[in-house]
Amino acid sequence: MVLPRRRLLTGAALAGLAFVLPGCRPSSTPGERKTAEGEAPRGVRIDLRHAARAGAESFEITRVAAEPLWSPPAPHREAPDWGDYRLSLYDPATGTLLWRGGFDSNLDPAAASAVAAISVRCVRPATPCTAVIEKRRAGAVFQALLDTTLDPSNAGASAPALLSRIESLASNGDASTRFDLAILGDGYLESEHPKFIADARRAAGYLFSVEPFASRTGDFNVRAVFTPSASSGVTDPYLEHRRDTAFRCAYGTGAAERTLHAANERALRDAAGAVPYDALLVLANSRRYGGSAYYAGPAVVAIDSARSRYLVVHELAHAIAGLADEYYLPSGHGPAYRGNVEPWHPNVTTSERHAKWRMSKPAPTPWNKTEYDARFEKYVKRYLALRAARADEGLVEKLMQLEARRQRGLLANSGQTREPGLYEGANGYSTGMYRAEADCIMFSLQTDYYCGACTGAIHRAIDAQCA
Ligand SMILES: [Zn+2]
What DSSP string describes 333-380? Predict the structure, then answer.
């Protein structure tokens, strides 16, 4: 919890967008994912350089790699329309849409100048096609940032598979009909392979202990992909640690000291390409609290933190189901959202008019917000004071555990437990933005349950890969 947001609220569409994928195979329905030749569709990975400068964003393709093990989901009418960006492939002769998928980036577009290297995947076209990357704007409008030709014959080989050791942790069916989760580790020496496998089993256990993942276990394949690092542990400027690791996992600095991300996403994707995967969980062999995730990108967690259960279930939900953070850092009566842009995320909204979830309580729904804000603001100050004092991690973990219990008790007393409504305070804003229930894994520090809106979104994400 209290992970700094990559973006508080960037470009988003108006509600009711109801985008329907025309699809390259209009007759496709869930369950029909084979081609006429009986082969599952194969994928291609596009490595991108995403840059922001003086308010302007750009994308540049730096590499195209084959992803022969991955089966892209077939387009269908119920495909979630999530992500700040989307990639579309068109037939250059007819203009027919061949494939489309949404994604996020770990770049802060509000930064004066920033660059990120990310990867997106799509179906491998049979012949050269037109690839368009667009940014979601307000008013259900997408703005093209890249329009280029994608030639599948230029797709090089991916995945230095020889460097990876693969262990199946759960196998429930063919990759083209299951949600495939790949768990990778960073900052593990070759001699720490047994620890990585134990950590990966622990992380999978965390995920499948929570609904709806618990009841969907049979829809998942889980594979642990081990890539040794030259150093044990990961880079942490706060602790003045510099480590030489396979994926360059590193904590942020300053106010972002809790952001832990994989700086070398290309190496990460290369290693992950040794297995079919629909989502990536990266275990940083580190204790200090931290993590990050973005939709369709990797979720990264400090697996040795006392709060690693929370980090796994919270961060993976961002990556898999496009969920926004529901929490906010209260400050006085703010921060307030005063815009009119409805976020695309399925678990937050600006108004009941957008009706992303059924409400059984009147809107806005009363909850003990004043008490919560005062309590949480005090906690945040304590957390920051401990960090400023370079306190032992054990003290920080103790504070967080205590706060998790307090929050659970306080929110359970809100009088609205598990009643869907319109609870003010979400997506980084204290006012002007709403969530579906008083409590949720995306709101507080608890690890017991996702709210109904988040649960529905996770089901949709799993369904999209299992169709
Ligand atoms: Zn939720």
Answer: TB-B----PPPS-TT-BS-GGG-SS--SS-SSPP--HHHHHHHHHHHH
